[in-house]
Batch of 2 targets.
Target 1
Amino acid sequence: MSVLIKNGRIITAADDYIADILIEGESISAIGKNLAGKADSIIDASGKLIFPGGIDPHVHLDMPFMGTFSSDSYETGTRAALYGGTTMVIDFVLQTQGKSLQHALNDWRSRSDNNCVGDYSFHMAVTDFNEDTKKEIKHFIEEEGIVSFKTFMAYKGALMIDDRQMIGLMEEVKKCGGLINVHATNGDMIDYLVAKHRSEGKLSPLYHYLSQPEITEAEASERFVDMASYTGCPGYIVHLTCEGALNAVRNATKRNQKMFVETCIQYLLLDASLYEKDFEGAKWVMSPPLREKKDQASLWAGINQGLVQVVATDHCPFKWEQKLMGKNDFSKIPNGHPAIENRMELLYSEGVAKGKITLNKYVEVSSTNAAKIFGMYPRKGTIAPGSDADIVIFDPNEKHVLSAAAHHMNVDYSGYEGWEVTGKVKTVLLRGKLVIDNDKCLAEKGYGQFIKRKKVSQII
Ligand SMILES: [Zn+2]
């Protein structure tokens, strides 16, 4: 099966030119002007932009959390991602304290395998680092193709590891050629503030926000960066939200340290005033919480300064009835918000169309850098001969309105209800197959493949 895409404006992290793309099988075989039209099918992309398929390296599908599961399955979540131009996601396997990493991976695979429509991989969250866990790291990197290990500096008693475990894990992961991801907030400070607010009868979603002030994230980010510097382990801070935490990274770069930063689309676009809407604020209860306008300005600047390399989502949807579990107590609201389908269009509309970032930067932070950092480049993350034919054909001018009525995520509200965006994903190919065309999904669950990743280079 071959496909020829004619006359599109091809945008990569480095290039911007008009040419034809020939796809044979699952990969790109040639790019050039006026390629001969011998393909089985031809797509005319005149007037359209062509991006590499988006990569969202931070999602939680069908994830057990606070007594329930995030509402998107691997099928609905990866399908919604494709509608929004994201062809690959990286989800998180969570180790149960007292059990092995392999046990957790088997559990996650029982939900993910043969159920994904789009491509996927996993980060392995290490919540209990000990002598047994240590022995599994090499196997995960070399055999399972899982090279990134997530750590939590919060959620004590469930997910958090202490600094002693962090240092031990970093030394092992560095030795084996992997990378540490971190949820960097000070769990003890937050636990103290949550208990204090509850004891004072302050139970609305606003107090979720007030229990996680900027300093809790800035302190933990700095501590993580220091530990990574000491061990020499490459680090990646997930969902960084604020100026204080970003400044910790700025300081670290003065000593030539390798440290990567991800933010999420919501932290660029939404702010904490949404928590003043009584219980409706529960829609945006996530950790860390939304911040202030000055933090948004820092994050946009950080993207352009190269300090923030990735814009992800932390997609972790819960239906409204699940959010109601915390109706009378903010600490019982399941954390997370839906965005897997909206990220690429929102970032284009608010970033590129409004002049905050260039087209090349857009591709870099929505696809290329994630592929490089997490060991998939150049198979994923670019448009080049030999790369997987993961391609988004995008109309930069078409306007449309985001809403729960129109989206494909399995959740009954939108965090962006009524938001008008400029630019629309029109056609998506994943490994050479036409998967989205004219608002229809043409792929079935099971088409999405688990992508084994390579050791990380530490350099992007
Ligand atoms: Zn997350």
Target 2
Amino acid sequence: MIRNISWLVILGVCSLGLTVGGFTASGQTTNATADGIAATRVVVLGTGNPSADPERWGPAVAVVVNGRAYLIDCGPGVVRRAAAAEKNGIAALKAKELNIVFITHLHSDHTLGYPDLIFSPWVLGRKEPVEAYGPHGLKNMTAHIEKAWTEDVRVRRRGLEQANATGYKVNVHEIEPGVVYHDENVTVTAFPVKHGIWKEAYGYIFQTRDRKIVLSGDTAPTDEVVKACDGCDVLLHEVFNPHGDELKDPHWKEYFATFHTSPAELGEIARRAHPKLLVLYHQVLEKLPESDLLEQMKKEYSGNWVSAKDLGVY
Ligand SMILES: [Zn+2]
Ligand SMILES: [Zn+2]
């Protein structure tokens, strides 16, 4: 009987993804830094891309440190995914608490949840404006979103809902490479990546007291990721499956070569960047089973790596 229960617990953990760094899959802290501050967690809210895959929600990641969540990108469903992570025990991901985001680039799959992040937590009582960091063009996008929901804001504020006057506002910070944000928990540094014809696409470094976490954003292979990681604790990197049928078409082949990273290219990047843990995310599966991609990755990289699942904690 006891043995059965243990297996159930193990299965439960596996279903939520690998956990490292002293955290259980439910998000409960099992260790802390020397000064008693809870250790940093990476919560992958959505591993998806533009495909309407019900198992993979829009790309969004949270770095959770000392009770605060710092979001990276806001793909479709970001607030509900955060609520699911809160249910798993990560209180910092409560909808009302979400108020800071770092956008990698303005592709729609990474920003369709932006209006959700602006308005849903406000309706649920958030009073602080959103602090949004990202490439040039983010101000323009934000202004259009604010305009599109003008009537909603008017009704919620003037009607019986009596919504507050501040929580739907956004302070937009259009960034350059370098340190873009610093507080008592984290220093965030942006670095440029290569994403086809996008003029600006960024990866981010999150340095906390106990961990250095690097996210590639969407990118073709670039030395910038190698430099940024340089032995980091966690490298989250995008990857696509080059076995997909689309790749037989020369224009799609060129698209993937200039916008994204194959397993062979990622293996090379990881060998040079030597992260303690490589996390594959934004996996473009090209309608093939995930195992096809993972088999290629196994051949290309013998270091410590895992393929992220939605709501996985790393
Ligand atoms: Zn993308
Ligand atoms: Zn993209």
